Predict the structure.
Amino acid sequence: MGRRARTAAIVTVVALLSGCASSQASRAPRSTSTPSATSTPVTAPSAPDATDDPVVAVPPAFTSAVSPITPELAARMEPSWRAGCPVPLEDLRYVTVTHRGFDGVDRQGELVVHADAADAMVAVFHALFDAGYPVRSMRLVDDFGASDDDSMAADNTSAFNCRAITGGSEWSEHAYGRAIDLNPVENPYVRGSSVAPDEGRAYADRPDSPGVIHAGDEVVRAFASVGWLWGGDWDSPIDYQHFSSSGR
């Protein structure tokens, strides 16, 4: 091949290569300073469903309060307190405590006791509440006209009552606010064949029933922890409902 022919061939090849390069460049994407399309947002993977918090049983709450005798309460207590009683009103305290009913429902009960016994009774009924011991009713004896018989017949737990001892003339420990009668129907007063209240006869032989107090049980231990003694330990009469600071 002559020189002119080789030169022409080389020129032709260069031209062909230049055309291919130009064609590929025209097909390549053009870059700009600002993107022409919006980027697809990245979504975080969804969190697994949260499990419910575990259900935790909340124990019933015991509450209590101790307060002086207000003028309003003194007016309410006219049946149970009068001038000449062995303790003045200012030495008494109004106590409220939570107690478990025989139906399993928790209620607020009320008592009037001597000021020096108020904290002890709160401690006792807190222990009885924790033990699940049921109390039928806990109202001031004034709601029964200060009649001990009527209060017992209603199975009412009560404390202060300015009265004499049963069958005697001396002041009862109740007249000082240092005694309490607990569930009188389930825990009657027994002297020979006499039972008070009469509704308590079915419990005179001390069945193992709710509310019945037995020697050494949680009720006796709770009162003993604050120095109060049980009338169920007496020889005669036997006062199963009765607890007092003096043992009388």
User: Anything to note?
Assistant: Confidence is low (pLDDT under 50) at residues 1-39. Helices lie at 3-27, 71-76, 118-131, 148-153, 218-224. Strands lie at 64-68, 92-100, 106-114, 179-181, 189-191, 194-196, 229-230, 238-239, 242-244. The radius of gyration is 45 Å.
